[in-house]
From TrEMBL:
Keyword Transmembrane helix listed: yes
Superkingdom of source: Eukaryota
Name of protein: XK-related protein
Catalytic activity as recorded in UniProt: a 1,2-diacyl-sn-glycero-3-phospho-L-serine(in) = a 1,2-diacyl-sn-glycero-3-phospho-L-serine(out)
Membrane topology: Multi-pass membrane protein
Localization in the cell: Cell membrane; Membrane
Keywords, ordered alphabetically: Apoptosis, Cell membrane, Membrane, Transmembrane, Transmembrane helix
Transmembrane regions listed in the UniProt entry: 43-68, 161-179, 199-221, 228-247, 259-277, 289-306, 318-337
PANTHER family linked to this entry: XK-RELATED PROTEIN, XK-RELATED PROTEIN 8
Assigned protein family: Belongs to the XK family.
One biological process term in Gene Ontology: tolerance induction to self antigen
Length: 393
């Protein structure tokens, strides 16, 4: 049954509130874990948690600040002065400011009986940036934190209550960010069927199930060879960075900041698939999956030859088979999703199910988030091909 525009607005507003709450909950769990490590005398673990948190936050603020400076003049009105915005980002509050701004705009639009096209488009503009930033934060901070916590649990042989809280919030936050990002891409494509509940659940599950074995493999290697995991990450990251560069990305407003984006994408690819180039993605996705699977098998095989170093080696006899089952199940769900549940990407001249279309500024002077729109055309190549065809009638 089609969703009304007002119901769509309410759904987006609720998702925005939940996303902001998830970010704050995950941040609180990380700070709580760092405090507990410090109180127990594990200063190295506390320092690593804070270092990962700090590096990810700095990268997030850089993205937010660069995008704000690249946005059209006069788009974000009213807003704080340039110095105030710079101070907010310097204090690592830029992302939270964007979340509050998005929620405020969404609430403003929802309260209106007949919201203007500009207000609708501007709400989408803000939501797309927030979704993209949330995805970056997930793979720059949440996923490495999850890997670190699992490595600590394997190395120590026990899991404290605050570690279980961190593990659960991390897994939920990662899958939520991937789902929210995929949903955000769909708002860039006019006349598309909405991402239904069944498709959303399958998409959520296959990302969660494929991510778990990868994180477990890296965590096992980190627990046994803590001095070599950085070399492993750096080696693969450089290969993935070269791969991203060869695909000729053009996401950021200038060549210097483009390398920040490429470095972030290479980090994402270390854990999960992320498409950045136009054309059919099946071949590249298959190569990436085979690459990560081979590397994960090598990490696990290396870890098992030295598993006697771990205090609870018996736990691996349960964790590793579960990881293998999760991978197979996640792969099956991924094939099911793209084979039968992936939404249609046809371009039609009219709108459907209350979804808003971001029109070009040349047509009606509405805000258009060209950054994420470009990624949407990359993610849905058939939609771009169909857009080039003449509209009949």
């Amino acid at each position: 049954m089609p969703w009304s525009p007002r119901a769509t607005l309410l759904r987006d507003l609720v998702l925005g509130v939940l996303g902001t709450a998830a970010f704050l909950l995950d941040l609180g769990a990380d700070l709580w874990a760092a405090c507990q490590y410090a109180l127990s005398g594990s200063y190295l673990w506390a320092a690593l948690v804070l270092a990962l948190l700090g590096l990810a936050s700095v990268a997030l603020q850089l993205f937010s600040w660069i995008w704000l400076r690249a946005d059209p003049v006069g788009l974000h009105r009213p807003r704080p002065s340039g110095r105030c915005l710079a101070l907010l980002h310097l204090l690592q509050l830029g992302y939270l400011y964007r979340c509050m701004q998005g929620l405020q705009q969404g609430l403003l639009v929802w309260r209106q009986e007949a919201p203007s096209e500009f207000d609708l488009a501007y709400a989408d503009f803000l939501s797309l940036d927030i979704s993209m930033l949330r995805l970056f934060e997930t793979f720059l901070e949440t996923t490495p934190q999850l890997t670190l916590v699992l490595a600590i649990v394997l190395q120590s042989g026990r899991a404290e209550y605050y570690q279980w809280v961190g593990i659960c919030t991390s897994f939920a936050g990662i899958s939520w960010a991937l789902l929210d990002y995929h949903r955000a891409l769909r708002t860039c494509l006019p006349s598309k069927p909405r991402l239904g509940l069944g498709s959303s659940v399958i998409f959520f599950l296959w990302n969660l199930l494929l991510l778990w074995p990868r994180v477990l493999a890296v965590a096992l290697f980190s627990a046994l060879f803590p001095h070599y995991v950085a070399l492993h990450f750096l080696g693969l990251w450089l290969v993935l960075l070269l791969w991203v560069w060869l695909q000729g990305t053009d996401f950021m407003p200038d060549p210097v900041s483009e390398w920040l984006y490429r470095a972030t994408v290479a980090t994402i690819l270390y854990f999960s698939w992320f498409n950045v180039a136009e054309g059919r993605t099946r071949g590249r996705a298959t190569i990436h999956l085979a690459f990560l699977l081979s590397d994960s098998i090598l990490l696990v095989a290396t870890g098992m030859t030295h598993s006697t170093w771990l205090p609870r080696r018996a736990a691996l006899k349960i964790w590793l088979p579960v990881g293998g089952i999760c991978f197979l199940l996640g792969l099956a769900l991924r094939l099911i999703y793209y084979g039968w549940l992936h939404p249609s990407c046809r371009w039609e001249p009219d709108r459907v199910d209350g979804t808003r279309t971001l029109l070009s500024p040349e047509e009606c002077q509405l805000p258009q988030n060209k950054r994420v729109a470009g990624l949407a055309h990359t993610f849905f190549p058939k939609a771009k091909d169909a857009a080039d065809l003449p509209v009949k009638g």
